[in-house]
Amino acid sequence: MFKEIFLFEIKYRFKRPATWAYFGILLVFGLFFSIGGNGPASEKVFVNSPTAIATMLSVISIFGIMLSSAIMGVPVYRDIEHKTENYYFSYPITEKGYLMGRFFGSMFVLLLVSLGLHAGLIIGFQIGPYAGFVEPERFTDFNLWWYLQPTLALYWTNFFFAGCIFFTLVSMTKKVMLAYAGGAILFITYLVTNTLTQDIEAKDLVSLLDPFGLGTFNNVTRYWTPEEQNTLTVPFDGMIIWNRLLWVGLGVILFLYTLFRFDFQRFLNKNFGKIKKKKEAKQSHSNAALIKIPSVTKHFSSALNIKLLFSLAFLEFKNIIRDNFFKAILAAGVAFLFFDAWFGFPNYGTPSLPLTYYMLEVKDFTYVILIFILIVFMTGEVLHRERGVRYDQIFGSMPLPNRIVYGSKFLALALVAFVLVNLVLVSGVFNQIIKGYYNFEFGKYFTDLYLIEYPRYIIFIMMAFFVHSIVSKKFMGHVIAIAIWIFLFGLNNFAEINNNLYLYGYSAGYTLSDMNGFGHFGKSLFWFRFYWLTCGAFLTFIGYLFWKRGTDSGRKARFQIAKRRFRGATLVSIITALILWIGSGFYINYNTKTLNYYANSDAGTMNAVEYEKTLSKYAKIHQPKIIDVKVNADLLPKERSATITTNFIMVNKSDQPIDSLHLNWGGKSSFKKKMDKFLIDNQKPVLEKEFEKFGYQIYKLPKTMQPNDTVSMVLTVSRYFEGFPNEGSGSQIVYNGTFLNNGYFPSFGYDSAGEVSSDQDRKKHNLPIKDYSLPEQNDEWGTSNLLFNNDADYITFEGTVSTDLDQIAIMPGILQKEWEENGRKYYHYKMTGELDFFYNISSARYDVLREVWTGENGEKVNIEIFHHPTHKYNLDKFVKGVKHSLDYFSKNYSPYQYKQMRIIEFPRYSTFAQSFPNTVPYAESFGWVGDFSDPEDLDYVYMVTSHEVAHQWWGHQITPSATRGSNQISESMAEYSSLMVMKKEYGIDAMQDFLKRELDSYLRGRANEGKFEKTLLDNDSQQYVWYRKGGLILYGLQDLIGEDTLNSGFKKFMEDAKFRQKAPFATSTEWYSYMKSVTPDSLQYYLEDSFEKITIYNNKVKNATYKKISDTEYEVTLEVESAKNYFGGNGKLLETGEKPNVIEIAVFDRDTKNEMGMTTKVPLFLEKRWIKPGISTFTFTTDKIPVKAGIDPYNKLIDRIPDDNLKIVELEE
Amino acid sequence: MELQISNLNKTYSNGVQALKDVSLTIPQGMFGLLGPNGAGKSSLMRTLATLQEADSGSITLGDIDILKNKSKVREILGYLPQEFGVYPKITSYDMLNHIAKLKGISNKGERKDLVESLLNKTNLWHVRNKSLGTYSGGMKQRFGIAQALIGDPRLIIVDEPTAGLDPAERVRFHNLLSEIGENTIVILSTHIVEDISNLCQNMAIICLGEVVAQGNPNDLTKNVVGKIWTKAIEKSELDTYQNEMQVISTHLKAGQTIIHVLSDEKPHSSFKKGAANLEDVYFAEITTRMETVSA
Q1: CA of B78 to nearest chain A CA: how many angstroms apart?
Q2: DSSP string, A636-669
Q3: Does residue A482 share a domain with residue A402?
Q4: What is the ipTM of this complex?
Q5: Which of A411, A1062, B74, B276 sits 20 to 30 Å CA-CA off B239?
Q6: CATH hierarchy code of domain B3-216
Q7: In a domain, A284, yes or no
Q8: pLDDT in tens, A648-682
Q9: Which of A291, A296, A551 sits opposite B46 (nearest CB)?
Q10: How close A15 gets to chain B, by Cα (Å)?
């Protein structure tokens, strides 16, 4: 019996077109990922590497929820839908046979259908090498196990688990809608566990709870280097087994429950599970025959139609909001809005204040996905409402014009969408109230939600409406509508098609800022919304033509109807929408492509390749160096333009004569430029050659410059914006919060930073592989130029800047004078001493906080914080950070070189802080609005401020040379310096949290490396090396040889290298030599391991026990395992360290809180020991009951798994 | 007003030709459509109810072209489909009121009177405040009838309206229909011959998409008067008779099989002359045709 039902199920399914459609969709996805190389593999990883295959399989299996619900939700429901249950259940079949047959039959089909993806991938990877999207070298040979293993471990288990849920839900409730709702809830559970991952400590929990095992998988593979990704399949052990057992087990339990609970009689009962009220109304025999049906008057008018339109819409609206599925998804959506806002926007794990823009931005996190799904489903419901209850024939013959019915349905959804946008407001304000933040900015809420977001939802609705009108099968409509969306998302994210004109519903991004409000984004948003609304309207009208009213679903009949409807007002509407759509498209195209520069990433690469091929012959030519700069800048924030005149004095510092000046303006950009005036020694130079495409001009100097000759140059440049771009904030000059750097002027000569660096792209375009972007440490050109700007060494600076009356404009130097003139405000600045050629101009409506730092020798530095008037929350932290830094650095390195230190807020179009001489611009959302109320959270304002102040020494006093490795002198040293300042203030426990974060970033960074990992001595491009590894290693070094010892070396380095007037400028070799000189011979191995090699430890506690000897004496036995491995840049294991290393071992009491409220470890025993690789056992006594013990407990070494370094000490039996 | 159907054709996308050159003239009053399952009755009715397109042909109601001017037709149409559903969570009162609004009855008082009288007429008054989802099959059918009668329809199309009604309700409904049918076109489809002979002044028999007979039921019956012969036979003999003569119907009576044969002359002395009725007309028309198809 089971067999017959099972086989029938399979046969039935194979005849359904949907089965093949699902298979086909997966196949297409597979082909898309494989042929186009759109999978997750980074450059050094094969596109069909085992890890890439496993990632694709597990990610797609999450979207497979839809498939599971479609296939596993219906096998039992089918009997209800087709009303076969009444007789089918009367056959001599058992419940178990019936259920198992249906279940296994459908599961079999589901698993088979799911193989569409494999088919697509396997075929695609065979075609891939010949298709030309990805280099043939990036494909490796086919290996069946790489597909099989993750399919069994992740892919199928996910389908199985999800399938069980849907099968159970529908079998036990008879409601097929629950299959969809269940799908949504599952999806949401998934997203929740993903949100938890942000909290680094909860990793094990995430690994266990992730229903799809993707998090588990990621936690295992996240530090895998390209080499490992290319060779290893996901190890099926540890957390993965537990996770799979948990979820597959849950699936099995659900199925078993259904199997034993299911009962035909219960199932047949109409009010399934409900207690029926048995109260029949009395049948009154009325005098029906005698009653005359009263005659009535009927009115049919457009006024009545309008009335009906609204009343039908309102009825439909009520139907939607009463829908349980709608309520379930919406509840989830609102929960997401709330929790995303609640947990959202941390920096370094520290939350931000619940500002209005944060509350608004969460709408684009998870909420919008749910809204989209909701809109698709609800549109389907609405358009199928009558058909769903088979009321369509009666309704269809009502005297209602088509447009009223269709229109009312649309209106109902528009109404729903309005409710949906308002929920963002409700959730946001609620969040703010709970967090005690009462600055409600309803203007921002209304503008963003009603004018920007609401039209977007309408655009979504229009697409869904179109699809559901054309496709007369509801579920098929859902699948197609969602597939379109996923397809667009895929195009945008994987195929890197980013022209918003071609991606339905897309528009240029915008950022809401406290400083600059909605800024200049309005125009672009208006046009993109208008464009997609008219497109949507066009689609909606087309949908109207084909919208099914009545019973005829034949293609011929529907075309016949469409032809009939295609006239009159409909025809006019369609044509109008089409014209407006196309017209606005042209206008947008004119703005994004003609007025603004637009290139997709391929065109960008091509441009860079051409740039290199054409101009690299001018690399490293001798050009004069600037020694003095006098700026005269006029900013027009309202027009978003600036006119800047600069007088330069330049010297030929080379030993060759120079006869021409190469001005490199850079290629086309949305930030337009116009050269108004250009004089050298008061003469107009002759343009000898121009490469317009790259903005590269070669002028003949009026007189050849002999070595040490000096010339003056005057350059006036206007910079401005026009129209609006396809993407990009255009943040250089804005209404409030201008932030310009010296990049508004051309640089001299060829800049190799504009070259393509990816190996893959270079190979493709026949360029030699570029392993390094900078020359070696002893290269003559490299050592005679500075890293940040090779147009000058150190310069002197003076300037005047004017801006709007209500703004403050800032340039380097001390303010000499400020005045008003012609309704504008002028500021004159002059720099004392020298600075490297790296400065900025800022202007905004600022409030200023002024403080003074006094040094040990009585020297004074003015501290000025230029901030947005309402951002007063953390000013004290900035001040404290500056003061403590000045203390530490002037004592340990050298005196501070300037008389002032300024911190300047700029709008949140980017998130960073940057150090210019005596000035640190700091992004609006970075620190100014952080919420530091929890002492356990990292005080990143303090730390980052300290880092940036440290750059005044490491970067601006010693400015590194343009050689590889030299940026470590700037970044690693600034990172180290800030760690030291922070350690002094917050203690060693706060450090550990941060170091673990650094370690995580470093290990992730190297796992995603596209070339090869470089060492600290020659790294010239990898941030994870110079910040993360650099910080960790230097912190470890000071811990090993002593902070003062190490600083003495740095002090010496500072004395020798600061403001060096002549080449050779500082290199990593020089930097390294000072560290070597202060490190004892026995510990030199640490330097070699850390700076010259890539070394990773693997330390862990095997066992920790104690014996009580007396009340004040406990004997602890600690068994630890230590390993030290050396890796190549590509992640390949080179050799294993054999010699002993100095590693800390420790025993701890229970954690306590210190006076600042931070959790701190309490060591009972802490010692550095020489520990040999392998297993070692240590015994020592403590005076209290030991709680935890471990090796390298503060994570000072680079360790692949830092979490196994500590263990609870157990009492020995 | 008169409903004129001329040369109507319709083929579904699966290749089934549902209507073949159908031409009918339907005057005011009750009109019966008789035909076996799948004859095309519902197709024709759905086309009349503006729910379906025709491939060719025309339908006019007075001066309204039904195929082109659907909205005009809908204003005066009452339609009860063969199969229909209801919104389960709304009461019949509210639903009828809603439909009345949609049918253009904008005066609140009129609407109330109308809905109440219809609820009474269809004997749903006592359950007017119950949601439709709780209705039994018969109650639901009565609700269907009520909704079709809303708004003074000039053209009422009811597709198998008495299916699922008990005998008493059926009578009540017939009374209701004939009451309305006096100055309205009522098209009633059924396969119960008796209903038609009781109710309709005019009728048509449809078989395999074609109109095979039309006219007044009595006139049609007259055509077969004297041509119907009956005989009680053994069941095993049926085949023989079917081969030798035109057996139009068989039925059982007290365990014996009675056959009706259509013939101008007495086929055999053992046959008795049958009293011709509409059923014989119906079977006479369809049996031969159906056999050609099934043969």
Answers
A1: 8
A2: EGGGTEEEEEEEEEEE--SSS-EEEEEEE--S--
A3: yes
A4: 0.89
A5: B276
A6: 3.40.50.300
A7: no
A8: 999 999 999 999 999 999 888 888 899 999 999 99
A9: A551
A10: 17
